Amino acid sequence: MSNKSPIFIIDGSSFLYRAYYAMRPLQTSKGMTVQAVYGFCRMIRKLIKDFKIDHIVIVWDSKGKNIRHEIFPEYKATRQAPPTDLFEQKELIIQFLQDLKIQQLSQSGIEADDLIYSLARKFHEESHDVVIVSGDKDLAQMVNHTIKIFDPFKDKFMGQDELEASYGFPLYKLPFYFSILGDTSDNIPGVKGIGTKGATDLVNMFESLDDLYANINKIDKRRTKELLVEQKDNAYLSLKLFTLQLYPVSINVEDTKINEQNWKNTIPLLQSLEFKSLVTELSATLKPEDVGKKNTPNQANIFSEQTSEQQSLFAESRKALHEIYNFMCINNEQALVELCAKIREKKAFALDTETTGIESMLDLCVGISIAIETGTGYYIPFGHSTDAQQLSKEVVQKHLAPIFADNSIQKYLHHAKFDQIILHQAGMPLTGVAFDTLIAASLLVQDWQKKNLKVLSEFYFDETMLTYEEILAQTKAKNFSNVPLDLATHYAAADAHQTLKLYEIFNEELKKQNLDKLFYTIEMPINDILVAMQIEGIFCDKTVLEELDIFVTQDIQNIEKEIGLLTNEPINLNSPKQIKELLFDKLNLPPQKKSAKNTGFSTDAEVLKVLAKIHPIPGLLLKYRELYKLKSTYIESLPTYINPNTHKIHSSFNQTLVATGRLSSSNPNLQNIPTGDLGYKNTIRQAFKADQGQVFIAADYSQIELRILAHMSNDETLKQAFLNNQDIHKQTAVKIFNTTPEEVTSLQRGIGKTINFSILYGLTSYGLSKDLEIPYKDAQKYIAAYFEQYPGIVTWMDSIVEFTKTHGYTQTLFGRKRYIPGIYEKNKSLYELAKRIAINSAVQGTAAEIMKIGMIKLQKNLDDAGLQAKILLQIHDELILTVPESELEQTQALVKESLESVVSWEIPLTVQTKIGATWEQASK
């Protein structure tokens, strides 16, 4: 093992993208966008500082196509075009690195991955240890005992042993593996139809791709063998694309040496970019006594021979927080009593739960972590499978349950909803949740940034936390209940402790950004309602789905037979490749457009609708896909979500996943349950039934986004239409078609409706022509007539765009901000997309907040009136409640009054309510 300082090779593009998207848009006083430059400088400085780096080189991709494009023109074709200002900032980054005298490498026509590989091999052969700084999985194929990867996004070293344990085979087989699996990010095709497990099995069965095809008859699975034979060319193409290539490189170790004194050379550039904090930091650290200090401590740990690499790095990760803070295990009742006394005295604390899994309605709580003040954290285990001393669940309940139920004691959590449900299931319901750092992060950081606790700790405090995956990998534990208590304490106490630290920062930051009112009056109160919704759940009668499945399956089989008769040969209707061959090669139907991934001609619904006018098979395919999705996504899937204990579905409603602030639903997504009659006796929504003695109330905001548009734009014509209770879609049609209200046809009204609702989603002439299947010029004419009818909307849209350009974000009426980096784009299509997002987010976000306020107000009014109704589902602009039949009339009136009185606008909100014993009945 080398005693020399390791050489760090940085994947420049990976670092650049990370820096660009990790921060909100940042501009100088002259309007220059510089967040990528700032982030890159910070990241480089942190990397050098953390690892005491002596040798470093940064490798860039060259402009234009490379050798792999010559082999496969569609290589990386699926990647979205990068923002244009990214390249402008790259030039500044290159200048920064030149000032710092860090060696950079780029070569025309050669991909950065190949140059990194070539450098790593060169230094390896010269007996140097090498660290590749990248999150690119392609580079794992070069790892050996002296070449390791550091993933800066996961803050994790990966060596040969760890990577081989992760993949399940030797690293030299990685090109073989990806020749089968493919790589969607680089548009490497692989063998379609063979997934991760199948590819792993083949790699462990054969030595190489050549070996596989030489012995293909040894493969037992007929389908796998067929796929390999059919796609042999793709497999070998993928092998060639994925395998790294060696090229001569002229950089020597001496060229990679860095000098701490060179930071002073960067100060003029950093000052010109107005990076005041960074300049101040550098000026403070560049003292004469610091110059010349040797940067060698800690480097031996990276390639330590004394312990396994995983243990060494794991210990380093543990030590970071454990050395700084005092984390204690509470394993006797007296210690718990003393801790509870401190909580009651402080009247506020942060907490987190540790569980056997991530299913909050099924998994068990095995411990609770608490932090009362910065510097100290506690872990209270009671469900670990260990001989070590721990408290019983009953003792923990006796002392903590009263504190959890005390609303006067404030609780701070990260993802409170999960912990509240877990603790409810554990018999310790949690109230008084005053602050959720995940919800705060969703308001404060950008929607493309990760918001988990570990990432936020790294971002705000430069402190690395242990990950759950690292814990399980180190201990070989099945779940957290099997983790030894000392290690569990280090991990769990850190969760509560870092949550407390984030609270202290976020609470002030919310005030600074004028987001505190939104947070405390809307986002935090809605959390408790979402908890109650998930705990309550909704009954789903699987016998209804089983009956529906019989008819749907029969119709699917009939379509398969009908298409078979038309083609006179068997065909897999779920194979895009076979469908393309059928439509465009055998039937000679005219292709309409390329597929989204540029893998040939598209066979999406838009294309099939056009082709259905020419031949019967495309129409049958449309029906087949509709039924197949109905069967696989709903009929077969929904029963798997029925809780065995409650016999209900407990969907999770989330408030931090959608950038506009809309609530989303997952596990399963109940916001996408199909509406309408598909021609069967039963529908999916008929399976959702109210409990005995109860009925559903469906309450729907009528045209809420158009009403918000009328209020925000102050367009007189649109306002008068609502104030006079006119048919808004008919009024739009009157102008577009230059007719009278009496003469408007149902088709014309439908076009008016489409335009009204589409205008908020960035309606374009092209999009409208496709939606309505009309000529492009007609679509242009309709949109022009629309804006002529509602000129206030045009003015308002322009004002939203200008506001976004000025501030970098768009904003709802209640203050939610959404940063739109694309608003500074020079690429016209990306700029137009950014404009559409800015406009839509302002309206959709406001609608989401009105719904949340309505839910909060409704729940309070129900509680004050002593009514037993419960909110079960939230479907965009609609609520579903369950209510005792005896309270139906009073509740129905209260629902309507609560939701309609959320705002006092000139344009009133209107709510329609319907009732039914099933969700289907309440939808009609």
Lay out the secondary structure:
Blueprint: E1 7-11, H1 12-21, H2 35-51, E2 55-59, H3 67-71, H4 84-100, E3 103-105, H5 112-125, E4 130-133, E5 147-151, E6 156-158, H6 160-167, H7 174-181, H8 196-205, H9 209-214, H10 222-230, H11 232-242, H12 263-272, H13 276-285, H14 299-302, H15 309-324, E7 326-329, H16 333-346, E8 348-355, E9 365-371, E10 376-381, H17 393-404, E11 410-413, H18 416-425, E12 433-436, H19 437-444, H20 453-461, H21 468-475, H22 485-512, H23 516-536, E13 538-540, H24 542-567, H25 576-586, H26 605-611, H27 616-635, E14 648-649, E15 652-654, E16 664-666, E17 688-689, E18 694-701, H28 704-713, H29 716-723, H30 728-736, H31 746-758, H32 765-772, H33 776-789, H34 791-807, E19 809-811, E20 817-819, H35 828-865, E21 870-875, E22 878-884, H36 888-900, E23 911-916, H37 919-923
Parallel strand pairs: 1-2, 1-4, 2-3, 4-5, 7-10, 8-11, 11-12
Antiparallel strand pairs: 5-6, 8-9, 9-10, 13-14, 13-17, 15-16, 18-22, 18-23, 19-20, 21-22
Helix pairs in contact: 1-2, 2-4, 4-12, 7-8, 7-11, 12-13, 16-17, 18-23, 19-22, 20-22, 23-35, 24-27, 26-27, 28-34, 28-35, 30-31, 32-33, 33-34, 34-35, 35-36
What does this structure look like?
It is a single chain. The protein has 37 helices and 23 strands. The protein has 924 residues and is α/β, with parallel strands linked by helices. Among the domains are: 173 residues, 3-Layer(aba) Sandwich (Rossmann fold); 205 residues, Ribonuclease H-like superfamily/Ribonuclease H (Nucleotidyltransferase, domain 5), CATH 3.30.420; 112 residues, Taq DNA Polymerase, Chain T, domain 4 (Up-down Bundle), CATH 1.20.1060; 140 residues, DNA polymerase, domain 1 (Orthogonal Bundle). It starts with 6 loop residues before the first strand and ends with a helix.
